[in-house]
């Protein structure tokens, strides 16, 4: 092999490239952080990092995150005082944090969230970012100050980030402005696009391949149709991923019917907003017709089951979505927990609870890991597709982003090649994650992040400030 | 304090006694492994083990386990070939392992399962043990050989064990014998009681306080009414806990109605089998009348949500059970995962998914940890009550069984005193568990068990033998 000096190679016991397992195979990557090839161990010359008792897998892509919401973890699991708690009473508690965070606080909270992602094998995050302004609603001198703070947090941890810049224009159809949303709201699509374009150019110049932008009209509640159309047109022109909360709550559906006499997806389909670059986040309360429309357009759905169970949103109909051929991704969303493998298993498990049936999402393939492979795809290539990234598989030319699992961890010990992926998806715990590498650069080693102690200390200080 | 030499003291940053948190407080225990008192740190003389950055909590009690089922983890998450997979197709796969395990295999599998429990903060297990005979159905020379292998595995790991000796007499009402059940079946209640009594005396003599016996008619499927009555009478005479699978599957309910013209709990209530020593395991498909009957008798329910979601059993109506004042415990059952805190949160989360509502099980108390405390009680004092054990709280005279949590673990970092328990129950990951102590003796230190490598190696060898 030429120019050995510039190549790095890793040799685990087992390597999953996104399709199948390889024995005695090294992952070779170039100085630019891309995979050169998967090579038999005996053919590697030069430096090779051995990873004994470890399995190596493509890094996971977390397609939906609100990083700052980590500050309310554990603070909403009690009665709010309302007669019945729901997503909406939770949202009030979330807003009470929103209005108090400084740019530095947002950086510290985001870094904490991204640290947890890194430790769990996530290498890329899609951050659905809706905090733009100062608490009083005035833009900062740099309108993208907060977006940049979040991007910096991801880069400082070592994650790649797709900053999905959120468009938020109103509290809802025929709803009075909500002062708690002052940090989200920009005055019209034109201003939004102008601010987004500034950020897009900045990220493209400063962080090519490590940070990029997508756009995200928050929901049909928060944007009217003309704005949705303008933003979709901008996204298409710039080839940006377009994310949007869709069908998370029944109330959203009702409001959309009132305003547009159409269901949300119906409205998006009719206005040409659905495309392979479009991801509907949640997609819980969907009609058959809406599923057909999403499938016809090649649009994606991002499920966030650990958050959806925490918020009482409901169960995503993953069976109907898979049957329609829709690509699914996963997101840790509110960060009640950060564990995409738990999200992956819940896609299936929540349907088991609903149907009193097993292996609901399993393909006909009788291999013990066939269902697990389908679910793991959601955490990898499904996510990559959703956020506009060419990772999620380990193949020549693709980013060298991966994590390793300790094969002696008690949660998966004793696995054989045919059930290893099933054990990883259905049974592994976070402590089984050992090394995490992004673009050939180590981010987590032996289960610990290099600046973990500092991140935790700063976050602890932040939480004391916020809540005592 | 007198006789300092014989006392041990632990000083964590925070100590939860089962009711509230204490600062600067040491847990002092005697040479017999019992709590002497909770003492202000400044008043402890003599040796004190400092546990900086750790919170100390009562050890968890896993009230329902089938330890050997660990061997099929990850091997049933795919289509069985039946048109529709369910608990029953899973059972066939489980039976295919049952028929092949030697006594040594059962020891190795059990030790692996108990190791995982230890690492997750469980200090006592209720093992619902139904493997009695050789694969051909013949009793071993010692009829309790396999029960003793399981007990030995628990003791070698360091766990306390309540061996719930299972009574299994038939495949079901008007069902032909199933040769795959040959290892479970004993010929009649008299023989069962004789064998059980031998085991009870043996454990009482050999392992007082570390291993004890309960009895467990498997289900209304596996035992007829006269046998149920005999065993319940025996349990009452010897003051033994009495466990039984109840209302796990709709088919069980139908069979019971056919045979007895009564629902399972109705039958048990009418025949005086319910009592405060009785635990119905699962309790998913219960009528209002059955819940009233359980409550009236002071009987317990053990929920196993991670298994119930894996098996597609359904959602336990924990809201109705709490409202009736029934004591709930938790079990890891089939060991699809071993994480009682995940079980605890699912008690609540599955109801949120069903109801599209939050904080369903929360008491009116507005403290951020009120719901978490209720769920944590299920994993501690609820379990202790169910298996006939005086642990689950840290108070003078009680067993010194506890685990510690690393307060800097990224999953719970930044918690304050009022939301710490909520973060532990709703968000913590297993890697946050540091030290686990049973009867004053360390079992897990700094997240690792002393003989972990050996246990994992032997289990790996077993799995190769079984599945390759």
Structure description:
Two copies of one chain form a homodimer. In chain A, 37% of the residues lie in helices and 21% in strands. Chain A is of the alpha/beta class. In chain A, the strands form three sheets. In chain A, strands 1, 2, 3, 4, 5, 14, 15, 16 and 17 form a nine-stranded mixed sheet that branches. In chain A, strands 6-7-8-9 form a four-stranded parallel sheet. At the A-B interface, helix 1, helix 2, helix 9, helix 11 and helix 12 of A face helix 1, helix 2, helix 9, helix 11 and helix 12 of B.
Write the layout of secondary structure elements.
The structure is a homodimer of 468-residue chains.
Chain A: E1 8-16, E2 21-23, E3 25-29, E4 35-40, E5 49-58, E6 60-65, H1 87-98, H2 103-119, E7 122-129, H3 145-157, E8 160-167, H4 189-206, E9 211-217, H5 225-238, E10 242-246, H6 250-260, H7 264-270, E11 278-282, H8 288-297, E12 300-303, H9 305-311, H10 318-323, E13 327-330, H11 340-355, H12 370-387, E14 402-406, H13 420-427, E15 433-438, E16 441-445, E17 448-449, H14 452-467
Parallel strand pairs in A: 1-5, 6-7, 7-8, 8-9, 10-11, 11-12, 12-13
Antiparallel strand pairs in A: 1-2, 1-3, 3-4, 5-14, 14-15, 15-16, 16-17
Helix pairs in contact in A: 2-3, 2-14, 4-5, 7-8, 11-12, 12-13
